[in-house]
Specification:
It is built from 19 helices and 31 strands. It has about 725 residues and is α/β, with parallel strands linked by helices. The termini are far apart.
């Protein structure tokens, strides 16, 4: 028997397979997705432009093959692609119905805590952690990457985001996305765009000039895309200049896909699609969970009919499908499908703890009350600090390992339910350090707590305020008489430290009566341990505020939120604003305060340390189309610490100062380092909407080396020529 032909055919098959695999790896995601979409029928293309309800909410059934979460997409079998399993959210892997036995996951601290690190490497590490957990729990799409700016410090979802500045937001959120996608999980960037309030979010029109939008909110998204390359951008619920964001061609096509050359796909937020033809032509590529969430399925049979009638070109459907496939190939889903298995809880807790230790912001430290000294009798009061730490609510909620530390009967509560506390009690973490006696009072009896405070060397009071998706706060006050509690403790003991667990700034009428204030944000699944280490000096605070803390709402660009307390359908329809005019334009947060010459309670960029630093030697280095700044930072204390020198620029034509760059620098005791920061040219520019370009104006730019947005620091003036940049 002649075996040569058999052997030859076998060798040829092996070689062909090898070359095919080699070709697949050599091809770019654009080439692979373009080739595949050309082989797909119209019906196959239409089958992937809407996801199905994944059974994660309400009473919806879990589709076959789905895990029970936000959405699910099964590709046509012949394509050989893994199912898409979508999960909330940006702080960890959600499990809203508690249907997954393998759903034990770790929550990062609030997005504001990560932003407060001013550390893209930390953000990337946190992204890798939650991306890995998603992959290990069977998910390959995370609805993460919240990048809406803080235009109002009462917004119920600010805790998910990264503050009020577009440069800081873009770099931190972009790094988080890059970390997630390094684990072969698609991340979204959301909510595109101007979804800056929860009140009337389904109908509100955010009205703002295109130029101002490009210099603020959209710039944050643009930078996040450059840094993180998200597979998908999620369009938001609200209207922008009267058009729903998910059918707004200026946002989705002109800006995102044309000006920024974005190659991925646009998915709608859940319930944010309202039309078929308008949305498809405007640039929406995938309707999310449309079979149950939207009023009807707009991208199913309705889209097929629109194509057959010539209302939507078939080429547009092919483009929608190609963009989805591009995201699939770009993160390597076909070659790295999720592998369900146990997560390394201890390692992931360490990441969450590190994030909180870097992100907590020390706001006040009178008489160096912190770090707490060995042997002190410390009284801990309030905030359920004996049980756990508070987390923010809504779709970003991560289930608490072991259950809610402060259990509530939620059977009769509508969504978003009750506050969830992670089982990481600061009290027990402080006691476990063994550095002195630590006792506890709940704080519900103010007189009793005050009496106990008289017998302590120091008092640490935990003050909390819950933030939650769909509900804005009506004020900046601490609820439940917590201000009265803090004031009473301060009268009873001169050494009071307030630890804030909040998702937004709060008013502090007692700030000058206490010695310490630590903003811990929502500190995540390992928050108790992180807070204990910060209080006792085992970790050195290095966080800096990513948002301005006003004295009161009267300092805000929009002091009132009309209908903020609306809860009924009638109130939402008739007692809330449906048009919000952002007359402040791009002057968001600290820019607004600077332009109005207002002094905040605590400025953007502010943060104390147990170390002290000196900034010196500012020099500017202008190029023909660039500007950089160099300076020296010295640790003038006896302890290693982290400095975050910041560069702010005021344009020749005025307006509020703008953050143009920063560095996070680790310095040993007595150490000096010289740093150079390249200023992002878009921060130096005005956006010319009429000609769709950036224009750096000719004239004198004022450059400041500072420790916060209110610090004038070292100032130099540099003359720059005019130049133009592509959009």
């Amino acid at each position: 028997m002649n075996l040569f032909p058999v052997k030859a055919r076998f060798a040829l098959a092996i070689a062909t397979t090898f070359l095919s695999l080699q070709s697949a790896f050599a091809q770019s995601p654009t080439e692979r997705s373009s080739q595949l979409v050309k082989s797909m029928s119209l019906d196959e293309q239409l089958a992937i432009v809407y996801s199905r309800d994944g059974g994660g909410f309400g009473a919806a059934a879990i589709p076959e093959g789905a895990l029970g979460s936000a959405a699910f997409l099964k590709f046509p079998t012949r394509l050989g692609l893994p199912n898409l399993e979508y999960s909330d959210a940006g702080l960890g892997v959600g499990d809203p119905r508690h249907v997954r036995a393998h759903g034990v996951v770790v929550s990062l601290p609030a997005g504001l805590a990560t932003a407060s690190t001013w550390d893209p490497d930390m953000a990337r590490e946190g992204g890798r952690m939650i991306g890995s957990e998603a992959w290990r729990t069977g998910f390959n799409v995370l609805l993460a990457g919240g990048a809406d700016l803080t235009r109002d410090p009462r917004n119920g979802r600010n805790f998910e985001y990264a503050g009020e500045d577009p440069l800081l937001t873009g770099r931190i959120v972009g790094a988080t996305i890059a970390g997630i996608q390094s684990r072969h999980v698609i991340s979204t960037l959301k909510h595109f765009a101007m979804n800056d309030l929860e009140t009337s979010r389904m109908t509100m029109s955010a009205n703002i000039s295109p130029s101002a939008m490009r210099e603020s909110d959209l710039l944050g998204f643009e930078i996040a895309i450059e840094v993180g390359h998200p597979g998908s951008v999620m369009c938001s619920y609200n209207r922008v200049n009267d058009l729903y964001a998910c059918e707004n061609s200026y946002l989705l096509t002109q800006t995102l896909k044309q000006d920024w050359n974005y190659p991925g796909f646009v998915m709608s937020d859940w319930g944010a699609d309202h039309t078929t033809v308008r949305a498809a032509l405007a640039g929406l590529d995938q309707e999310s969970s449309g079979n149950t969430i939207d009023s009807r399925l707009f991208f199913g049979n309705a889209l097929a009919d629109a194509v057959h009638k010539g209302q939507v070109p078939q080429e547009r459907v092919a483009d929608m499908a190609q963009r989805i496939l591009y995201a699939v190939y770009d993160v390597g889903l076909p070659d790295h499908p999720p592998m369900i298995g146990p997560i390394d809880v201890a390692a992931d807790m360490a990441v969450a703890q590190k994030d909180e230790e870097e992100g907590a912001v020390l706001l006040r430290n009178a008489h160096n009350i912190l770090p707490l000294r060995r042997g002190m009798h410390v009284l801990v009061v309030g905030g359920h600090a004996d049980a756990g730490v508070l987390s923010g609510g809504g779709s970003a909620q991560v289930s608490a390992i072991g259950g809610n530390a402060v259990p509530v009967d939620e059977t009769s509560l509508p969504w978003p339910g009750a506050p969830v506390y992670f089982r990481s009690p600061p009290l027990k973490a402080m006691q476990a350090l063994g550095l002195g006696p630590v006792t506890y009072e709940s704080g519900t009896d103010i007189a009793r707590a005050g009496n106990a405070a008289r017998h302590a060397d120091a008092v640490v009071v935990f003050a909390t305020k819950w933030s939650v998706e769909s509900i804005d706060s009506s004020d900046l006050a601490l609820p439940d008489k917590q201000n009265d509690l803090i004031a009473a403790l301060a009268r009873a003991n001169r050494h009071v430290i307030v630890v804030l667990e909040t998702g937004n700034p709060v008013e502090m009428p007692w700030v000058n009566d206490v010695e310490g204030v630590l903003e811990a944000w929502y500190p995540g699944a390992a928050g108790g341990q992180a807070i204990a280490r910060l209080l006792y000096g085992l970790a050195n605070p290095s966080g800096h505020l990513p948002m301005t803390f006003p004295y009161a709402t009267t300092q805000l660009a929009h002091p009132d939120i009309a209908g903020v307390n609306a809860r009924t359908v009638f109130d939402v329809q008739f007692h809330t604003d449906q048009e919000l005019f952002y007359d402040e334009g791009s002057e968001v947060g600290y820019r607004w305060f600077d332009r109005q010459h207002q002094t905040p309670l605590f400025p953007f960029g502010f943060g104390l340390s147990y170390s002290n630093f000196q900034l010196d030697g500012l020099q500017l280095h202008p190029g023909s189309k660039s500007l950089s700044a160099s300076f020296t930072v010295k640790n003038i204390s006896q302890r290693q610490g982290v400095a975050v020198p910041q560069i702010y620029v005021t344009l020749p034509d005025g307006g509020g100062r703008r953050l143009a760059g920063w560095q996070r620098i680790v310095l040993a005791a007595g150490e000096s380092k010289t740093a150079t920061v390249t200023l992002d040219p878009r921060i130096l520019a005005r956006f010319d909407a009429a000609h769709d370009c950036w224009r750096i104006p000719k004239g004198n730019f004022t450059v400041r080396l500072a420790e916060s947005a209110s610090d004038n620091g070292s100032t130099l003036v540099v003359s720059m020529p005019q130049w133009i940049m592509a959009p």
